[in-house]
Amino acid sequence: MKKYKVALFIGRFQPFHMGHLWEVEEAEKLADAVVVGIGSSNVSGTADNPWDYETRKKMIEQATYNSGIMIREIIAIPDTPSDEEWVKNVEFSIFNFQFSKKDVVVLGNNEWVNELLEKAGFAVHRSGFYNRDELEGVQIRKMIREGSKEWKRRVPESVDRLIGKSASQLVS
Predict the structure, then answer these.
(1) What contacts 93, CB < 8 A, 6 or more positions away?
(2) What are phi and psi of 94, to 5 degrees?
(3) How far is residue 65 from each of residues 46, 71, 145, 164, measured CA to CA in Å?
(4) Which of 26, 44, 77, 154 could be stapled to 52 by a disulfide with Cβ–Cβ 3.0 to 4.6 Å?
(5) Domain coordinates of the chain in residue numbers?
(6) What is the pLDDT of residues 79-124, one digit of tens each?
(7) How far apart are CA 64 and CA 46, in angstroms?
(8) Looking at the domain covering 4-166, what would its CATH class be?
(9) What is the dihedral of CA 48, 54, 59, 61, to 10 degrees?
């Protein structure tokens, strides 16, 4: 039996790349079920957040399915005016699945998020970055905007198929 019932992996997934896929695999090692939280789910159409929630959800569903990874649920985590409200949204999402904080481990590499959730009583696992020099959303979005095809090897093939044709229209 694994140490936790649920591993919650929170990210913006702009786009979902190979580092995110690695992190989901790490989450599977820690818990019986994996829940993915799409942060900034209410933001899209900007340089930092070009894809909407539904597109990001499809990226995750397709990439994890093709890799044989079982995701229990993908949840929206919208930006809010206050940190407290944001944490309450995360808590509500987890409690909605009938889990308590002791059942959950949060994965992620955003220290702001990690600290907020630790203060709220969640266990946080800092797994580190996988191949961070190549697998960073900021760099991948920049490659797409500049017309470099190099970004395609940094995302799962299913993500390339999903966003590839429209990627050249990213907001600068």
Answers:
(1) 35, 37, 75, 77
(2) -70, -45
(3) 28, 8, 28, 19
(4) 44
(5) 4-166
(6) 999 999 999 999 988 877 778 889 999 998 889 999 999 999 999 9
(7) 26
(8) alpha beta
(9) 140
